[in-house]
């Protein structure tokens, strides 16, 4: 199984005055433009998920949409996944995803530090290795099964590195 983990692109600053509900905070125009370039760079890595699961937050949904466009996929491949929200413990999300009928190649679009903890669960078996993914960055994990410690990190790239590949 191939699991592409993607951190949302650059969003506006968290500001309760502007965004009382932080989940509604969108990507900035520049953040969207930069991530669109990064998404195209994924094509050169021959990374083609069948389905894109995304946290329900607006900035992750927008990032998932740009990812689908950059990979030449329709937005029908996108599925809102509440378990990918940063308020949900990564262990719970992993357990639920392991029980779900998923294709052999998926993308998960979410937030930091959630993604780093989820990645750590996949490759190390616990959250202590919490790896930082830059905004708009991505990594690929390969695993026979979706379970703690069963994944192998194939690559991890920043948004700028991905864009340079495009």
Kindly describe this structure:
The protein has 166 residues and is an alpha/beta fold. It has one domain (2-10, 20-165): Rossmann fold. The chain contains five helices and six strands; from the N terminus they run βαβαβαβαββα. Strand 5 and strand 6 (151-157) form a beta hairpin.
Low-confidence stretches: none
State the assembly state of the protein chains. single chain
* Number of helical regions: 5
What's the total number of strands?
6
The end-to-end span amounts to 24 Å
> What is the second-level CATH architecture?
3-Layer(aba) Sandwich
Strand order of the largest sheet: 3-2-4-1-5-6
What Rg is obtained from the alpha carbons, in whole angstroms? 15 Å
* Largest sheet composition: 6 strands, mixed
Order of helices and strands: EHEHEHEHEEH
Helical fraction: 25-40%
Overall domain count: 1
Q: What is the residue-averaged pLDDT?
A: 94
Secondary-structure-based class equals alpha/beta
CATH class: Alpha Beta
Overall shape: globular
The CATH topology:
Rossmann fold
SS strand fraction: 15-25%
CATH homology group? Phosphoglycerate mutase-like
């Amino acid at each position: 199984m191939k699991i592409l983990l993607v951190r949302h692109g650059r969003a506006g600053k968290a500001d309760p005055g502007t965004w009382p509900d932080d989940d509604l905070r969108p990507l900035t125009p520049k953040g969207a433009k930069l991530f669109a370039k990064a998404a195209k760079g994924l094509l050169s890595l021959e990374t083609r998920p069948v389905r894109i699961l995304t946290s329900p937050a607006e900035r992750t949904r927008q990032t998932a949409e740009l990812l689908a466009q950059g990979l030449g996929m329709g937005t029908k491949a996108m599925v809102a996944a509440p378990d990918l929200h940063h308020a949900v413990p990564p262990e719970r999300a992993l357990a639920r995803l392991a029980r779900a009928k998923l294709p052999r190649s998926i993308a998960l679009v979410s937030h930091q530090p959630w993604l780093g903890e989820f990645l750590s669960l996949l490759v190390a078996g616990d959250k202590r290795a919490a790896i930082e993914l830059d905004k708009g960055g991505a990594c690929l994990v390969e695993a026979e099964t979706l379970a703690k410690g069963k994944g192998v990190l194939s690559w991890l790239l920043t948004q700028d590195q991905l864009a340079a590949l495009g």
